[in-house]
Amino acid sequence: MSTKKQTTLRVGETHVQAVRDTFPGVVLDATWQAEDQVTITIPVDMLPDVVEFLYYGRGGWLPNMVANDERPLRGCYVLYYLLSMEESDPGFVVVRAEVDPNTMEYPSVTPRVPACVWSEREAFDMFGLRAVGLPDERRLVLPDDWLEDLYPLRKDSMDYRRRPAPVTDVEDYTFLYEGNAEETTQVPMGPLHITSDEPGHFRLFVEGEDIIDADYRLFYVHRGMEKVAESRLSYDAVTFLADRICGICGNAHSVAYAEAVENAQGIEVPLRGQYIRSILLEVERLHSHLLNLGLVCHYCGFDTGFQHFFRVREKTMDLAVLLTGARKTYGLNLIGGVRRDILDEQKLATIKYVRELRNEVEALVDMLVSTANFESRTAGIGRLDPAVARDYSPVGPAVRGSGIARDVRFDHPFDGYKFLVGMSARSHDGCDVQSRTLVRVEEFMDSLDMIEQLLDGAPEGPIQTENWQYTPHKYALGYTEAPRGEDMHWAMVGDNQKCYRWRAKAATYSNWPILRYMLRGNTVADAAIIVGSMDPCYSCTDRVTVVDVNKKSSTVLTKDQLEGYCRRRTHSPLAGKGW
Amino acid sequence: MFKLFKEIGKTGDATIGYPFQPLEMPDGFRGKPEHNEKLCIACAACAIACPANAITMELDAEQNYLTWDISYGRCIFCGRCQEVCPLFAITLTKDFELAVLNKDDLRESCSYEVAHCARCGKPYAVAKEVDYARRVLSKAGGPAAADIDKIDLCLDCRRFDDAEAFQKQARTRGEA
After folding, report:
1. Rounded mean pLDDT of chain A?
2. Fewer CB within 10 Å, N side or C side of chain A?
3. What is the CATH class of A225-331+343-509?
4. Do residue B4 and residue A367 have CB atoms under 8 angstroms apart?
């Protein structure tokens, strides 16, 4: 053995060293799962200190925390706090701690790092692991009528097909109010929401027309995919299930899952496969951003613009059909690569589409920003304070509209993004709906450039590999930048060709907790456009109930009424009803 | 405002004729899978590969027929079945109009006669698959076809034979 000291440090080594220096003796173990991923094991009572140190002290952001029932493996539950280090020494540091299955308790990190709040609530719902000191202990994922002591993701709890009978007929979820004003009126929006035709129950606390605070209840459409993946599918079929997480950005999930397994198993995807994955991710971004730009027009009362954005969006769908054989970029990923090559004639056709899209969207954007309504309805609306953003780790255009240029494609380049030249993350610092919209416009144009660069740069060669060794119980992260922000998947395969644990974090999971701050200080009429500017990946309301708690009266507003009010901003549907 | 009117004028008519005119899909479109029951040997490769369990195979109660079944309601049009089929018996077509009035119309199935083990009588594979294997082996000839008669036995009986042969071999070696 050579005694020469290794001069190059591994990615994340400086962070591990910093933790060792600051908290001597705390790091029990440090292992690298992939080139840019290190997991450190620490005693469970040190969690708040270490996570806070890495988050605020070392420039870390927290996508989520993964809980795992590892009792069959090592007799305990394990928590993995995933941290994306984005200042010096970029990479991923995962803080791992084992939880005693007898106490089922661990100290909550949320009081120190608010970004953990949803993950810690979810860990209780799914595993019964209690975060001591967690300020908000309400249910997050499970419905109100779920059994008290049935924790679905515990390995010994239930079959994935079991549907326990509801234990109660009442929805008894309590909405939290954090404002100061005493006399407020509660405006429930939902259980179906107004912007995207998907369920979510919003409670606006209003004073007159002004929103003082907002709270929400989501997960009405939780499909238990993680449980299905663990129980029914073999690990290489999960890419197809991951596609179905989202109806818009499914491919991003599929790539993230595939790369989680590939990183864990040390599978090298052939270069051409990597380029094709990036091209398809950008095609997905094209149609997603056009959808949102169309919706922005719609909420500004500019429906002609909406129609035109959707007309042009059809071209991006045609492009998807051309490259993948389906209008959605579904079903093209396998562990080890992609399933379909881009042929020469498809390449030429794609370049033609890209040119047409560039010209048409430029004209449409010009039209949108010169519309008087756009400026007045979006500037200064739905402010996301950068300080709040720092605490909650939001992602995608939502955070980039607040002057923080976080983008996985550039912070942790993967796949074809490693080879891009002359591009960087976009950001605007208006912190409002307008900034978020402009970020999307610029990203759309960047995506077109990226597709051209990637098509030109893609080397000849195979698109998938089939030779690898399957090692059970190895785990790693996979990440992509979906149109709405980073998707983070954590996967551990089992000894039965199945996922032992798969945790998929969608972009919007990181963004929901900040919505209440974006809604504060705005009027009810702006609620729809603010929620829309986050581009939430769930669907929407067909009606809104307005409750006056003081008078114990309630009024039901239809979706059309509320949307109409959002567009006109006159003739409040609440007028004449005692408000 | 002027830009808007200019754009509207330039666009003209964006509406297409579908459904009153056929809508042509490009090559490589992944639509309704078409099963060719004549080519199919019911080897179940597609049923194993299908991530959505749209393709299933079931043995009837009398153990005489194996039924291959597809539900277009479950199908996610990924085309894995086409990829894994050894005989190109299933291909994805450009057909995307799958709406039906009755849910049962979304299913298609096809039954295949099952071969029974010549010794123990247990059903072990579809007769067509056994025939296919026989033809492939006899065409290959040589050492591959040496045990061609064993194709009529189920896996358990063949294992038993192998074990017995091994035991005999071990005994003769031991005696020598």
Report:
1. 87
2. N
3. mainly alpha
4. yes
B115, B146, B162 - which closes a domain: B115
Which residue among B4, B26, B51 sits closest to A240, beta carbon to beta carbon? B51
Which of A7-11, A126-130, A422-426 has the lowest average pLDDT?
A7-11
Q: Does B16 touch chain A (CB under 8 A)?
A: no
Interface test with B, best of A244, A315, A367, A497 (most B CBs within 10 A): A367
CA distance B143 to B165: 17
B78 in A contact zone (CB under 8 Å)? yes
Q: Give the whole-angstrom CA distance, residue A335 versus residue A339.
A: 10
Whole-prediction pTM: 0.90
Mean pLDDT of all residues in B38-46: 94
Contact criterion met (CB below 8 Å) for A225 and A540 = no
Answer whether the bond into residue A72 is a cis peptide, omega within 30°.
no
Q: Which residues contact A352 (CB under 8 A, 6 or more apart)?
A: none
pLDDT at A256 over 90: yes
Residues 354-383 on A with a CB inside 8 Å of B are 363-364, 366-367, 370-371
Residues A256 and A488: beta-carbon distance below 8 Å: yes
Region A482-489 average pLDDT: 92
A339 lies within 8 A of chain B by CB: yes
pLDDT(A551) > 60? no
* Chain B hits for A374, Cβ within 8 Å: none
Two tokens, residue A552: 């114990």
Task: Supply the pLDDT for residue A170.
Answer: 80
Distance, CA of B142 to CA of B133 (rounded, Å): 15
The verdict on a CB contact (< 8 Å) between B77 and A331 is yes
Domain locations along chain A: 13-120, 185-221+510-568, 225-331+343-509
Which 263-322 residues of chain A touch chain B by CB within 8 A? 304-305, 308, 311, 321-322
Helix, strand or coil for residue A63?
Answer: coil
Is a pLDDT exceeding 70 seen at residue A412? yes
Q: Select the CATH number that applies to the domain covering A185-221+510-568 from these four: 3.30.390, 3.10.450, 3.40.1000, 3.30.930.
A: 3.30.390
**Cβ-Cβ contacts under 8 Å, A340 against chain B:** 28
Q: Report how far apart, in Å, the C-alpha atoms of A381 and of each of A213, A430, B82, B135 are.
A: 15, 10, 51, 74
Q: Is the dihedral of CA B142, B147, B149, B153 positive or negative?
A: negative
Domain boundaries, position B156: 117-176
Answer whether A325 sits within 8 Å of B76, measured CB to CB. no
Hey, is the C-beta of B13 within 8 angstroms of any chain A C-beta? no
Report the percent of chain A where pLDDT is more than 70.
Answer: 90
| Residue B88 shares a structural domain with residue B63 | yes
